[in-house]
Every structure is written in structure tokens, then in C-alpha cells.
């Protein structure tokens, strides 16, 4: 399917960036650049206005379906959403692969603190949104989002 081709493209691209960087994780700047690529992809896919999602990283979460589905799209592209469900194990794995060493422990602690949020929601867009919001609220200093 097109979505799985897109997903594998992004996984390959992110992996290539990491290998090209010659390190086992990205710097904050590399993470931001990857986020910009994911943002562009998901903006087009979901059709959300950029103004609605541009402040997510600063904690401004607009409670609307298109914003929720944008967050789910980013999580799908980074393999945190699998089979329409958030994967705690995949989230931890992505932190190990992508985050700078000085952020790993705190981001993993936030994932641990927020791992059950998604269980309250039937739809992946809502589950993704409320999980992202929990992660921000838990640790705004190390929260990064596309």
C-alpha cells in the first residue's frame, strides 16, 4: 500500500540520516530537521493548517480532529503507532535510536508516565493527541514534536 511504502521510505530516510551522522543517535538539530520532513508529509496527508500545529512543541494543543490526526500521522511515520495502536515498546525504541544521550532518560521516563493514556481512547487520533499532551505536560523541557 502507499502508506506502508511511505512509512518504509521515512524509516529508511531517518536511518540514513543517523548513519550519515556517524552516531547512534541524532543531535537535537538533526531531530528537528527530521521533524520538519515529517511535518511536511503529514500536513499534506491530513490536510491540517500549519498554524494549528506549529505550536505543539511549545505545549499549544488545539483540541480538534485534524490536529489529533496530524499527531497520529507523525507517530505512524516514526513507527510509534502500529496497527492503529500506540506502541509503548516502539516509542522506547525510537528514543534509543533517535534522541541525544542527554535526553534519553527523561523522555523514557515521560513515556513510562504516559503509557496508559492511550488505553482510554478508542481512536488512534485521540489516543495519539492525549498521549502527546501528556508527554509535554510531564516534561516540557525535553518534549520535541514535528
TrEMBL record:
Keywords: Secreted, Signal. GO terms for molecular function: dibutyl phthalate binding; odorant binding. The keyword Signal applies. Belongs to the PBP/GOBP family. The keyword Ubl conjugation does not apply. PANTHER family: GENERAL ODORANT-BINDING PROTEIN 19A (PTHR21364), GENERAL ODORANT-BINDING PROTEIN LUSH (PTHR21364:SF1). CDD domains: PBP_GOBP (cd23992). It holds the Pfam family PBP_GOBP. It is found in: Secreted. Residues 1-25 form the signal peptide. Its main location: secreted. This is OBP4. The lineage of its organism: Eukaryota, Metazoa, Ecdysozoa, Arthropoda, Hexapoda. One of its GO terms (cellular component) is extracellular region. It comes from Ectropis grisescens. Gene3D superfamilies: Pheromone/general odorant binding protein domain (1.10.238.20). It comes from the Eukaryota. One of its GO terms (biological process) is sensory perception of smell.
